[in-house]
Every structure is written in C-alpha cells, then in structure tokens.
C-alpha cells in the first residue's frame, strides 16, 4: 500500500519535477568496503530512467571514505608482505580525511564509467560546510546546478571530507550539516527540490540513532509555529533488482 502511494505521488508531474537522491555507503559498497558494482549499475540505470522521464535528478553519494580505506588497506597489505612478522602485528591507523582524498576520485570515476555506458553525463560537485555560510556561494550553487540540469546532466554531490574542518567526520553534529544525509537535506532546500530520497540500510527516519531502542520512526513533522508546513516521510521501500536491494526513505 505504501509503495503504491509513493508511486502515485512520483507520477504526479504537477507535484514532482526535481529530485535529490542520496545513497549511503551501505548501498554503494559491500561489507568489505569494495564497490558494489552491480548495485551501482542498477542505480545509474534508474537515474537515467528518471531523467528520460523529464525529472531533474541530483545525486548525493557516500562511499568515498570506505572505498579509500579499502584501497589504502590493500596497499598496506602489499607493503607488509615484505615486512617482518613483528611489523605485521602493528594495526594500520588510517585517517578518515586521507581515506576520503584517495577514495572520492575513485568513486566518481566509477560513476563516470557506468554513466557513460548509459549515455549519461554526470558532474562532480564537492562542497564543505563553510561554503553554505556565504550568500554568494548559495546563489552560485543554484545557478550552476540549474544550468547543469538544463543540460540533462546529473550533478553528483559529496562533502569534500579531505579538507573539512570538522574534527570528526561522523560524530561532530555541530554546524550546518554533519553527514551526507543532512547535506542532502540542505541541498534539497537550497536547490528547491520537490522530493528528497535517502537510500540506506535502515528502515526510515528516526527520532534518534537507529541503534537506540528509544528511537522511533518519524512519519510526519510539523514545522514549529507553522501548522501548514508539514513534512511527510515514508520508510522501508524496497528497491533494486538482480538480487540486490536497499531501503529508501523519502521526504516531501
């Protein structure tokens, strides 16, 4: 029933034209950190399908840190093959920002390869939290993205983690945004998106950490003091083919 409601909502062109879709690390990578190529191919096919239906599609993707960590671990493993047994016992400490610097270009290159097979042009847009503090940036961001979308290009966004000034990529919740979920939400607002879809391995949007037993699924949110401004959420919409699936969370 919920999936039927979502499909009807998406098919109403008077309501939906511009989409922000965020894919989590669990969607684009396997458990060992390697890229989930088959899921990536399915995702790109679906994005092309949406674009061919005249939707304006923007993608926010995680996975760069995980991919970079795997690349660096593989390199360390090769190096350690010629080291002593004592050296092999030393755990490799990998900085998240360094992993992002290595993994982000590889991730975008993979998207470029898959999109090229679908005859789709993509564009990379890296941002940091400090960027959004300036009105000039916000104006330029919208102008650039509007132009890219008019050219049937799919912008791919990610935080530029390698130069982020936040002390912890995952635990620092101060400031304007603190992860790609919140980045996607800000982009959806700044770029006047009609729908935000978050694809991950959790059931939906929670009132707190999903691992906390006291956290509850949020189905709707009324903006304080403005009863007419209501955000609706759906959860746990299965997607994917070829034996691969993930969960989608939506907000409109």
Automatic annotation (TrEMBL):
<dbReference type="GO" id="GO:0009084">
    <property type="term" value="P:glutamine family amino acid biosynthetic process"/>
</dbReference>
<keyword id="KW-0560">Oxidoreductase</keyword>
<dbReference type="Pfam" id="PF00696">
    <property type="entry name" value="AA_kinase"/>
</dbReference>
<keyword id="KW-0067">ATP-binding</keyword>
<keyword id="KW-0547">Nucleotide-binding</keyword>
<dbReference type="GO" id="GO:0004350">
    <property type="term" value="F:glutamate-5-semialdehyde dehydrogenase activity"/>
</dbReference>
<protein>
    <submittedName>
        <fullName>Putative glutamate-5-semialdehyde dehydrogenase, Glutamate 5-kinase</fullName>
        <ecNumber>1.2.1.41</ecNumber>
        <ecNumber>2.7.2.11</ecNumber>
    </submittedName>
</protein>
<keyword id="KW-0418">Kinase</keyword>
<feature type="domain" description="Aspartate/glutamate/uridylate kinase">
    <location>
        <begin position="17"/>
        <end position="219"/>
    </location>
</feature>
<dbReference type="InterPro" id="IPR036393">
    <property type="entry name" value="AceGlu_kinase-like_sf"/>
</dbReference>
<keyword id="KW-0808">Transferase</keyword>
<dbReference type="GO" id="GO:0004349">
    <property type="term" value="F:glutamate 5-kinase activity"/>
</dbReference>
<dbReference type="InterPro" id="IPR001057">
    <property type="entry name" value="Glu/AcGlu_kinase"/>
</dbReference>
<dbReference type="GO" id="GO:0005524">
    <property type="term" value="F:ATP binding"/>
</dbReference>
<dbReference type="InterPro" id="IPR001048">
    <property type="entry name" value="Asp/Glu/Uridylate_kinase"/>
</dbReference>
């Amino acid at each position: 029933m919920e999936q039927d409601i979502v499909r009807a909502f998406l098919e109403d062109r008077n309501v939906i034209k511009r989409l922000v879709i965020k894919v989590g690390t669990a969607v684009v990578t396997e458990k060992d950190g390697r890229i989930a190529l088959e899921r990536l191919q399915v995702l790109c096919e679906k994005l092309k399908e949406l674009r061919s239906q005249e939707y304006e599609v923007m993608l926010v993707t995680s996975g760069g840190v995980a991919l970079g960590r795997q690349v660096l671990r593989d390199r360390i493993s090769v190096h350690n093959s010629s080291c002593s047994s004592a050296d092999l016992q030393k755990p490799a400490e990998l900085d998240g920002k360094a992993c992002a610097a290595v993994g982000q270009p590889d991730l975008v290159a993979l998207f470029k390869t898959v999109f090229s097979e679908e005859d789709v042009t993509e564009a990379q847009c890296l941002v940091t939290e400090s960027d959004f503090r300036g009105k000039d940036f916000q104006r330029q961001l919208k102008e650039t993205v509007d132009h890219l979308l008019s050219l049937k290009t799919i912008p791919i966004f990610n935080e530029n983690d390698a130069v982020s000034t936040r002390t912890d990529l995952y635990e620092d919740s101060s400031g304007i945004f603190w992860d790609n979920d919140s980045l996607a939400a800000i982009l959806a607002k700044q770029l006047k998106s009609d729908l935000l879809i978050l694809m991950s391995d959790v059931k939906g949007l929670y009132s707190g950490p999903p691992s906390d037993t006291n956290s509850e699924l949020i189905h709707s949110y009324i903006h304080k003091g403005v009863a007419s401004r209501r955000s609706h959420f759906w959860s746990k919409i299965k997607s994917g083919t070829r034996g691969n699936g993930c969960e989608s969370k939506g907000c409109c």
